[in-house]
Amino acid sequence: MKYRVTVAVFAVALIVGGCRKKPKATEPVGEIRGQPIVAALTTNTPAPATNATVSLSPAAPVQQPEGGYLNVGFDKLSGYQIEVSDDLLGPQTNKVALSADAQIPETVKELNNKKISLRGFMLPLKVEGGLVTELLIMKDQSMCCYGTTPRINEWVSVKMTKGGVKPLMDEPVTFMGTLKVGETRENGYLVGIYRLEGERMEAPEE
């Protein structure tokens, strides 16, 4: 059990450690499969015919779907800039106490302890009996398939509370649960700013 937890923490810490790095301009990047996940947009006024893709602005309000879960998208969770410096990433001292929370907008902090549904791509961290019990749900497949380092606000750490789920990495899935907004540290090191107490998962074939 200690080994599994250490591996999961290391995987998240490895991603965070690369958040402050920018890819070289001359370095080729493979085509990313899938599109960034955004919340569904609803309106009472019919939209004019157009071929353009519609997405929500970062400040757009969340929607209240059936089932009591707020429909939250990565357009809101990752729709702002956040800088992860070496000082912020490492253990904090009494003399200098930095927090990633100061960079999180109030509109996002208001989602803390709310029941939400979030759609994204799965990156398993812990598997028991063939089912995933701990994972990251990510904005796109850049990390899962191409090793591109995402920003710290482009993933949510998920720990299932009612049993594991089937591993599905090739298509977007939706997780329901209680969202926790605010920095998380392991052994003093910053490993994330979003956590989800996962209750269930919905896949396209379900």
Strand arrangement across the biggest beta sheet: 2-3-4-6-5
Low-confidence stretches: 1-10, 17-32, 38-60
Averaged pLDDT: 76
Instruction: Give the number of DSSP strands.
Output: 6
Fraction of residues in helix? 10-25%
Pattern of helices and strands: HEHHHEEHEEE
**Estimated structural class:** alpha/beta
Beta-strand percentage? Answer: 25-35%
The geometry reads as globular
Largest sheet, described in full?
5 strands, mixed, barrel
Radius of gyration over C-alpha positions, nearest whole angstrom: 17 Å
State the helix count: 5
- Report, as a whole number of angstroms, the end-to-end distance: 31 Å
Structural notes for this entry:
The chain has 206 residues and is of the alpha/beta class. 16% of the residues lie in helices and 29% in strands. The chain has five helices and six strands. A five-stranded mixed beta barrel has the order 2-3-4-6-5. β2 and β3 (131-138) form a beta hairpin.
Structure described in brief:
By secondary structure, the protein is α/β, with parallel strands linked by helices.
What structural keywords apply?
globular; disordered N terminus; single chain; 206 residues; alpha/beta; 5 helices; five-stranded mixed beta barrel
List the helices and strands and how they pair.
Layout: H1 2-17, E1 70-72, H2 74-77, H3 86-89, H4 106-109, E2 115-128, E3 131-138, H5 142-146, E4 155-160, E5 173-186, E6 189-202
